[in-house]
């Protein structure tokens, strides 16, 4: 099995050393390099083409949100997992809309961090319940649905719209399968088709789109029927 290649980005020398030590405990992960700011992160992502970039937010020269945006554009295969001490909604929303595939707080347990790296490397996204609430709360403050984004939903079949709604409500593939009385593999296939039709990279973008288009509104009951 080819190890996952990870770039560690943080402006704190001690934090980078600690993260490297944690990741080295998993033989399926190799740290290819480190970066102390956003500009270095972009440069070294281009150089090493890692599977996952473990990204800090507050850094000198260029912050993690701007660096994430540049990395996702320049190296589409690299997945960005934001790791920060800050749970401010501007940081969360900024990171996710810039293209990050997940968002974790630095108080996350080592085993959860390792699992998160494997999750985003596999092409899935990672949103903790608190982060999901932050995204939803931010979408509530959006005054009107985006009409351009809404037109994109017309490409979906009714069943695909059901799946997208359930994804936006925070259900996993297994929970979606149980709700719709289908196999989990079928739910995964629907999700893959949704991402392809809408030109989205992962579930994070799908959740954001669902709220931007007012397809899902907080507090409303699900419209999905089996």
From TrEMBL:
The modification 4-aspartylphosphate is found at residue 56. PROSITE patterns: HTH_LUXR_2, RESPONSE_REGULATORY. The keyword Electron transport does not apply. GO terms for biological process: phosphorelay signal transduction system; regulation of DNA-templated transcription. Keywords: DNA-binding, Phosphoprotein, Transcription, Transcription regulation. Residues 149-214 form the HTH luxR-type domain. It holds the Pfam family GerE. InterPro entries: CheY-like_superfamily, NreC/VraR/RcsB-like_REC, Sig_transdc_resp-reg_C-effctor, Sig_transdc_resp-reg_receiver, Tscrpt_reg_LuxR_C, WalR-like. Residues 5-121 form the Response regulatory domain. SMART domains: HTH_LUXR (SM00421), REC (SM00448). One of its GO terms (molecular function) is DNA binding. This is DNA-binding NarL/FixJ family response regulator.
């Amino acid at each position: 099995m080819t190890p996952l290649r990870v770039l560690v980005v943080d402006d704190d020398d001690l934090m980078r050393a600690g993260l490297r030590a944690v990741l080295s405990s998993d033989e399926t992960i190799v740290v290819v390099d480190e970066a102390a700011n956003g500009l270095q992160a972009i440069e070294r992502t281009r150089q090493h083409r890692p599977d996952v970039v473990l990204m800090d937010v507050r850094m000198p020269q260029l912050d993690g949100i701007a660096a994430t945006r540049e990395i996702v554009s320049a190296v589409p295969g690299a997945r960005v997992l934001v790791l920060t001490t800050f749970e401010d909604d501007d940081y969360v929303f900024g990171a996710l809309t810039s293209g990050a595939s997940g968002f974790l707080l630095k108080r996350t347990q080592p085993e959860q961090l390792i699992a998160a790296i494997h999750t985003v490397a596999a092409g899935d996204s990672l949103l903790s319940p608190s982060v999901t609430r932050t995204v939803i709360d931010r979408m509530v403050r959006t005054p009107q649905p985006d009409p351009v984004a809404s037109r994109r939903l017309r490409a979906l079949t009714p069943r695909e719209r059901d799946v997208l709604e359930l994804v936006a409500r925070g259900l996993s593939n297994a929970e979606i399968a149980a709700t719709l009385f289908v196999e989990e593999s079928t739910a995964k296939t629907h999700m893959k088709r949704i991402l392809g039709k809408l030109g989205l990279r992962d579930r994070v973008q799908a959740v954001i789109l669902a709220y931007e288009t007012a397809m899902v509104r907080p507090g409303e009951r699900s419209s999905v029927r089996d």
